[in-house]
Amino acid sequence: MASSGTGPRRVTIDDVARSAGVSRQTVSRALNDKGEIGVTTKQRVLDAALALGYRPSRFARGLVRQDTISVGLVIPDLLNPFFTEVAAAALDAARGHGWHVVVYDTGDRIEEERGTLEVIASQVDAVVGYLSQSEDEIDKLTRGLPVVLIDRGDRTERFSSIRIDGKDGVHAAIRHLAEAGHRRIGMLDHAERSQPSIRHDWFDAAMSACGLDAGSVSRADQSVPGGESALQELLARHPDVTAVFTFNDIIAIGALRAARRLGLRIPADLAVIGFDGLQLGELVEPPLSTVALDTRGLGALAVEQAARLLTGSGPLGSDELVVGAQLRLRESA
């Protein structure tokens, strides 16, 4: 969210009144199809509301009880356990308010995301989730709804946002590996992005801080097979690598599986550290070391932010919301 302290701004009935040159009462009558105003005035109000993207608050109109509020949760890939954990936490937090959450899986496709927003804008009271559209496009598609963006790569001025900051956790991970004697540390980055990920930037900076070369990088699909293939490729190009940091835990689990097939001992021959802190990481063998996010806290925070925007109590705090990450050492590193 913007650092000005005002938070994301939703178009109000006062904005419509000013634009149409009428009173708030006249706007209310026009939008609720009351008969006390002329046809020309009513049309002017409706045109102004449409131009501004005004969506009347169901709270303000008093038409619904709190327990009928719906939040649209947009997730890029529910097959990825990280997003499943975030969604579960959001659902739990929404239940605490007596709200409904409708979960949408976009398959990490921009066209699907756009179509989803077009559909849900008229069906929910707020939108929370992972959106890759431009701010202008989100603004147009959500038509004045409160929006909470999770893990938006760029800082947003129009919408509330929750940023993931894993820099300190990644630095701790690389420092741990360096202190354990590793000098050739590789990374398995996200394969589906045109540019290196922000997690690669954290890795690069952490390696530089330890005086190490960060050039041993392979790109991996976000799947267990993707992690397997990427580790095999990395070791084929850099056989002296003795530790890897991965974009997420799913890729790391694939790397663990590939290492076993290659006859490597974990962590004696190859140390592995993931990112996300999935519960699944505790169940693999050996248990996965990871730079862990509080996924339940992230989902709950997103819903609480939406609640504040919906009720008009303002966003949580005056600055951009940040969720940090901490190194969680287990047996893989």
Structure summary:
It contains twelve helices and eleven strands. It is an alpha/beta fold and 333 residues long.
Top keywords for this entry?
elongated; Rossmann fold; 11-stranded mixed β-sheet; single chain; 434 Repressor (Amino-terminal Domain); 333 residues; alpha/beta
Indicate the topology:
Elements: H1 13-20, H2 24-31, H3 39-52, H4 58-61, E1 70-75, H5 81-97, E2 100-105, H6 110-120, E3 126-129, H7 135-142, E4 147-150, E5 160-165, H8 167-179, E6 185-190, H9 198-209, E7 217-220, H10 224-237, E8 243-246, H11 249-261, E9 271-276, E10 289-293, H12 295-311, E11 321-328
Parallel strand pairs: 1-2, 1-3, 3-4, 4-5, 5-11, 6-7, 6-8, 8-9, 9-10
Antiparallel strand pairs: 10-11
Helix pairs in contact: 1-2, 1-3, 2-3, 5-12, 8-9, 10-11
Describe this structure in words.
With 333 residues, this protein is an alpha/beta fold. The protein folds into 3 domains: 13-54, 434 Repressor (Amino-terminal Domain), CATH 1.10.260; 66-164 and 295-324, Rossmann fold, CATH 3.40.50.2300; 167-293, Rossmann fold (3-Layer(aba) Sandwich), CATH 3.40.50. Helix content is 42%, strand content 18%. It has helices spanning 13-20, 24-31, 39-52, 58-61, 81-97, 110-120, 135-142, 167-179, 198-209, 224-237, 249-261, 295-311, and strands at 70-75, 100-105, 126-129, 147-150, 160-165, 185-190, 217-220, 243-246, 271-276, 289-293, 321-328. An 11-stranded mixed sheet has the order 2-1-3-4-5-11-10-9-8-6-7, sandwiched between helices. Strand 1, helix 5 (81-97) and strand 2 form a beta-alpha-beta unit. Helix 1 packs across helix 3 and helix 2 packs across helix 3 (39-52).
